[in-house]
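Next comes one such specimen:
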Amino acid sequence: MRILCYGDSNTWGYDPTSGMRFAHRWPKVLAQQLPQDEIIEEGLNGRTLVHEDPYGKGRCGSAVLEMLLRTHQPLDLIIMMLGTNDLKTMYHLNAEMIAKGVRENIKIMQNPFLYERYAIPKILVVSPIALGETILTTSPWAGEFHERSYQVARHMAKPIQEICAQYHCYFFDAASVACASKADGVHMDEENHRKLAYALAKEIRKMQKDHEKV
């Protein structure tokens, strides 16, 4: 399968300690777990679901998604993990509004006119990890998130899962297996990248088996 990993800095592999890029970020580890598949990385620091960041142009996911899908086709599966940056104070969103952003991206991904002669890819939506407690105190990102962000992050999974059910997408909650580093309360360390990759590899193998049964 050709699998597109579409996300933000936790897909790009942002090291919460140094700000550099992890070599063993989850898409790379996933590729090791699924050697028969082609893993395509499409992570961008600061990427949101549907909002333009006035301090970082070009970060709106839905604005560039159509181009990305055309660039990387044919695709068999899209793994989307976005929503963390939508928690920022300046957007003032609740969990249901963030889930609507997920829905808008799903609608683009399911548009048959984007794929020409190719089949519409399957979609696995990954609800992102929760923010860690240090986001409220010592994190270098503390000024961009607040108490409400911290609380909303803990309630995103359910409305996102409900959207996935409506649009017949697969769903996985990253917070069930991984967490943010204490270094900044936003980004995973390498161990949590591994945990997420192993869990997603298991989900993908299950999806493949279920497809074979049909």
The longest helix spans residues 190-213. The CA atoms of residues 43 and 192 lie 17 Å apart. The helical segments are 9-12, 26-33, 61-72, 95-109, 147-153, 157-166, 190-213.
